[in-house]
Amino acid sequence: MGKPPFPTPEILNAPPSWRCIDFISDLHLHEDLPCTTAALAAYLRSTPADAVLILGDLFEAWVGDDMRQQPYEQACVDMLREVGQRCHLGIMVGNRDFLLGADMLSDCGAHPLHDPTVLKAWGQSALLIHGDELCLADTAYLRFRAQVRQAAWQSAFLSAPLDARLDQARQMRAASQAHQQAQTPTEWADVDETVAGEWMQAAHATILIHGHTHRPQSQPFGPPGGVRHVLSDWDLDHGQPRAEVLRWQASGFTRIALA
Questions:
Q1: Which of 53, 189, 203, 238 is 20 to 30 A away from residue 37, measured at CA?
Q2: Which segments of the chain does DSSP mark as H helices, in order?
Q3: What 3-state DSSP class applies to 251?
Q4: Would you tell me how many other CB atoms lie within 10 Å of the CB of residue 96?
Q5: Which residues contact 192 (CB under 8 A, 6 or more apart)?
Q6: What rounded mean pLDDT belongs to the chain?
Q7: What's the Cα-to-Cα distance from 160 to each of 68, 94, 124, 217, 252, rounded to whole Å?
Q8: DSSP code at position 242
Q9: What is d(CA 242, CA 165) in angstroms, rounded to the nearest whole number?
Q10: Burial class (CB in 10 A: 0-12, 13-18, 19+), 85
Q11: What angle do CA 216, 213, 152 make, to 5 degrees?
Q12: Bridge partners of 59?
């Protein structure tokens, strides 16, 4: 796969009223994760953030916005709508929920968060991405990504009955879990630092914030003076519980562990 060109980003200017911005990603919500779902609900009820920005993979799989009428997903809509009524809720799609569309966002009271977005706050610029597109070493996934992001593929997939789409998503999830279990997290592809650094420079951003890789950390990265904040995935239902929020305030960044 070739080096991806930097897409034209959307600009999100934090209004002066914003004092606290929270970032989360990779919750992979589904009905078999009751503890993770409950933790998200508790966090959303209690966060003091003026903006909650979700950088992809909110759901484990999203097969079309008609899925929001399923019992579990409807409960998630209600949960998200509550926070969307009192703060700015932004949702970016990821590699698992890229079919999440305008109807779902509207029901949640959420704003679409473009990938990439440049967020400007407190005199700084942060480049926000999900991260999957820059995992250049994962060539098999990138070929799959190129296929499923095509309008023709999506139109054909969404024309199938919901039950058929849900069954296909279950099969894909099982295959993905088997692939992940065959590797350690350190073997999973990371974003390409050279290309990510070029994107940061093109965006005039010294900060990169992304999810996808499930390797939460903050580190010097990219161009001189650059820093990368990798978001945590969430899982409070299995062996090693983890759930973390990245909070940005005028004083800087703070990681808040919820596990």
A1: 189
A2: 34-46, 71-84, 102-108, 139-148, 151-158, 162-181, 193-203
A3: coil
A4: 26
A5: 134, 135, 136, 137
A6: 94
A7: 16, 22, 45, 40, 47
A8: B
A9: 30
A10: exposed
A11: 145
A12: 29
Give the span between the Cα atoms of 226 and 219, in whole angstroms. Answer: 9
126 vs 229: CA distance, rounded Å: 10
Has residue 40 got a pLDDT over 90? yes
- CA-to-CA distance for 219 and 202, rounded, in angstroms? 20
Q: Which pLDDT score is estimated for 139?
A: 93
> What confidence score (pLDDT) does residue 259 get?
75
Measuring CA to CA, which residue among 244, 205, 241 is closest to residue 223?
A: 205
Cis amide linkage into residue 116, ω under 30° from 0: yes
Does residue 168 sit in helix, strand or coil? helix
User: CB–CB of 127/205 below 8 Å?
Assistant: yes
Q: Are 24 and 92 in contact (CB under 8 A)?
A: no
> pTM (2 decimals)?
0.95
* pLDDT 10s digits, 129-157: 999 999 999 999 999 999 999 999 999 99
Amino acid residing at 124: Q
**Within 10 A of 86 (CB to CB), how many other CB atoms are there?**
12
CA angle 55, 217, 138 (to 5 degrees): 65
The pair of structure tokens assigned to 158 is 């969404």
